[in-house]
Design goal:
4-stranded antiparallel β-sheet, alpha+beta
Amino acid sequence: MKRLFLALCVILSGCATVGMPTQPTKSLAEHTTMELCHFYYSNPSDALRTEINSRVGFPDAEWQMIDGNRIHAGMSAAALVCSWGLPTPFGDINRYVGQWGNDAQWVYRKCRHCEATYVYTEDGIVTSWSD
């Protein structure tokens, strides 16, 4: 029985989320907008929504997309993070900077070996994505 319990603990510990916390660790004013959006994705609350709105002021249609965990071309990178969270712990953000602007590839994976969804932004605006 002890072996079964130990094996289960080892297996489940491999599934634990690492990296970015899912709740504020200090006052909301001390967090970046991207952190607040990640917290909102993880644990939506009126306090987080109010603080995010005071900083970026998403329109109601954008909040509907965020609350439905949907994205669309033209939404801001902050709205992307509010809707899908940061691509952690198995994803990444690959940034490219040049005279054309700031481009990024957001790589979202649900597990280390899962297929990725790629979201592309140009100058902080979602332009496209692929599964």
